[in-house]
Amino acid sequence: MKKPGYLYIAANPSLKYDLLKIGISEYNPEKRLEELSRSTSIPDKFRLVMAYQVEDILKAESRIHLLLHEHRYCAGKEYFQVKEHIAIAVAKRVVSLLDHTPLPEMHIHNDFGFHQFNKKLGVSFHRLFLLTMAYSHTNSIFDKMQGFSPDIVDGFLGVDAVTQLLFVQAQRVRNSMKEFTYFAKDLTVSLNKSEPTKVYNDIRYRRGELCWLFNAPLKEQFISW
């Protein structure tokens, strides 16, 4: 069940190492930061850097923490050692993709039909690979015309979406997504007898959410209209 609220980024001059607090609140984030300023031992008040009102705060939090996982200062805490402009860019991308739906139709380049992966995908991994294509937001004809530019993330795929699409139990999907993440890190594909091309520049999984960034040469092989 979706829980509406706010995704926010906050700073405090007393915090070292450019630490930012990135969290969620069911009510006005300014009021939430006032509460934090009173209840913590940090002497200075928190400053609101940005806030987005979203329909699903738990999904928003899970996804931004997934993308910023390597910047987390302490496990279990909502503090991240990251520059404000980077955190804001990631938050904007997460919010823009919260309601992203799979493509109703996708056109694949003819050369993609003559491909060879460096590892056998199997049925479940092949389905997940196709779903990462279908759930990517940067595969439109407009991207093809303008040229693919570096991005933060191409898409997200949640366990709930996969269970609904494939009618598979959630725990089985979680296990497959975890295994696929490790499997896909060094996955390559040869297109039309060309040199092997890395499939994903980045792919990661955490708490029911998968996210990825395709390698640009591969992205050019499939577009939606």
TrEMBL record:
<dbReference type="InterPro" id="IPR018306">
    <property type="entry name" value="Phage_T5_Orf172_DNA-bd"/>
</dbReference>
<protein>
    <submittedName>
        <fullName>GIY-YIG nuclease family protein</fullName>
    </submittedName>
</protein>
<feature type="domain" description="Bacteriophage T5 Orf172 DNA-binding">
    <location>
        <begin position="14"/>
        <end position="94"/>
    </location>
</feature>
<dbReference type="Pfam" id="PF10544">
    <property type="entry name" value="T5orf172"/>
</dbReference>
